[in-house]
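In this section we walk through a basic example: taking a raw amino acid sequence and producing a predicted 3D structure, encoded as discrete structure tokens. The instruction is simple. Fold the sequence below.
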Amino acid sequence: MDTPQIINNATSSNRVIDLSHHLSDEASIRVANPLKDIMRVISECPVTDLITMANGDPHHSLYPFQQIMYEVPSIQDTSDPVTSWNNSGRTQIFHSYRDQECALPICKAFQYSRAAGLVQCKDALTDFTNLIFAPPNHHVMLTFGNSDGLTKVFRIFGQKGDHFLTDEFSYPGITNCPLPYGVKWVGVKMDSGGIIPEELEKVLIRWDQAKLGRRPRLLYLVPVGQNPTGSTLSVDRRKKIYAIAQTWDLIIVEDDPYYFLRYDVPQTNCASADPDEFIENFRSTLIPTFLSMDVDGRVLRLDTFSKVLAPGMRLGWITSNKLFHLKLGEYTDSSTQPPHAFGQMFVTEMLSEHGWKIEGFCRWLRSLRLEYQNRLDFLLDVFQREVEPTGYASVNRPEAGMFVWIEVFFEKHPRFVRERCSGGSPVVARTNTECLLKELFERLMNIQGVAFVPASMFTIPENALWVESDGHVPLGDRTRFLRATFAGTEDIIEKGMIRLGKGLREFFQE
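The resulting token sequence is shown next.
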């Protein structure tokens, strides 16, 4: 067993440590885009009447936009703007102008810009991040949403032969990203509370570098409303995981699209007319993040508007230390470029004095959380009425997110098979659970007309070299779940649960 290397090369006055050894070879040798660099130098020139003929973008007088109007829900009904919006359609309007005063003028928004995003938008999101998360020594960079951000993060840390750590059930749209350049995933055992810190440490202790290559140095997590399980890491688990990251020198990638959709939290004084008081009350309902406890600079946090405004906005942001911020910027400046102007203009105006402001956005987030909690409660009520009496399935109550994780009791099926274990690999399935799951998924969809996502879509392949053989239940035998969303209307939810109940009865009583 190798002894962990405790990284502690920081001083008491500056806890940010040198983490440059985590960068991939590609990130280490990548250089800044020289044209972007010289444009930065020009933009910082102190000459007040500087005439620049160095730029390569069209003049703003030729942009075919005079103004853009945004008609959005009114947050004047401070108690519940989402319900008010759905019931009465009350709206408010703010604008982006080319030639009139606004937070981010069209003449500036549609110019070429640097990787971190337009200054006005980046500053607005930095203010929001500092207010909500209070991260020490971190910088904000805009992305085209978290999928784009994660693709870049994985690229600057991973290379062929590396292994990344994550939950044993994870969203494949993200875990697929680093596979083409030779990175493999190690799934860490979970329970209803998410990834288990002790299991994480077991993997690191057992790691055989002679057979597997260097020990994993990156941990990817969705800590609130994890997709697909709906689990949320407690504060205690977060502290344990961060301590493990410090001991074993891990980078933590905190992907948190469902952070503001956390349910069953104490209600605060939503009628407060004082903006600062309301924001402070709202903050008190939020769970501490890995970013907020990051004294070393080893956390990269990804936030997005996809789940709280609209997924098609394709706008999010990464908060990281200065070195990782610069490396992500070098990659962006020579690849995707910063996000589109439309989204940046909208967000800037929304958070400005002309729009909702940060207080209004927090009121929207609080109200949205209550709306989704109502939909979750409705699904659970219908499940209890239509599915639970079958005796063939149960459902968790997630703390956050948009999904419930429905467990199916395949051992009650007449064709369930369990092989007796007598040696062999500890990761080879000993039941036909996966086959029955696939059959159930197809029958529910093709006969009952209701679709869920089977757990097999989310599994991270196991390897006998990093699991304990004694008492280990292969992941294939634990792949007995269906993921269901409660983001739809009550009509969709009710019909779906009725069809699930009927489908389970027919499947198990064949």
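Looking at the output, two observations stand out. The two ends are 51 Å apart (CA to CA). The chain is about 35% helix and 15% strand. In the next section we compare this with other chains.
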